[in-house]
Amino acid sequence: MSTAADPIIHALRSGHEELAALVRDLKEDDLRRPSGASEWQVSQVLSHLGSGAEIGLATLTAAREGTAAPDGDFNRTVWARWDAMSPEEHAAGFLESNKRLVEAYEALDDDTRSTLRIDLGFLPEPVDVATAARFRLSEFALHQWDAEVAFNSFAAVTPEAVPLLIEQIGGMLAWTSRPQELAGRQATLLVRLRDPERTFGLRLGEQIELTDAPEQPDGELSLPAETWLRLLVGRLGPQYTPDGVQVTGPLTLDDLRRVFVGF
């Protein structure tokens, strides 16, 4: 029996192994390098992922045990402890904390993966394991890129994660975009993704939203799906933009970069 959570949990394991292989060899100077997250060093990215894994494990454990989910006070205590760590402690802590979270997801049997409901604390109601794991994958895969691009300017979001994330990225637009950067301009673009192929619309105006593919778009945006993910979360600076990204119509790629500031 397979469940909707299976490929997501597998992608979490693959991502952990890839990033852990890099982190194990990092020295203090490496950990202090600027990351792909504009205001963070590599060690701070690892701190964010490690503390998030600790909170995620506590949340998953509470759901399995039928107890109250961790609250804001718990989260703040975790963040404060990680903030006080050295860069080397961030790296070591990430390796252990994220490993434990991935193992906890892997330990769920098929029935639990299908029936368990998890209170993430920021949604109106508890969600299934697949949804909770996908939220973690979204956070992990993009911050994995933040760490890896510090050492490889050609780094890309892990291919295994890309098709699992493009289906939910539209739900983040209110958080990752700044419509005011359009200065009142409006446009609807036809978006064509590659690897995997997808076609839909992107409406830009007072609100930013995805739509069905428009019959008469104002322009077209064509790019790899991996690149699309990074554009929407503010990680497509000129130095990180691959060949083959094309924009036609009233908006430029720089306009889109200004709109999608990410996190």
From TrEMBL:
Coiled coil: none annotated. Residues 12-147 form the Mycothiol-dependent maleylpyruvate isomerase metal-binding domain. GO terms for molecular function: metal ion binding. It comes from the Bacteria. This is Mycothiol-dependent maleylpyruvate isomerase metal-binding domain-containing protein. It comes from Micromonospora lupini str. Lupac 08.
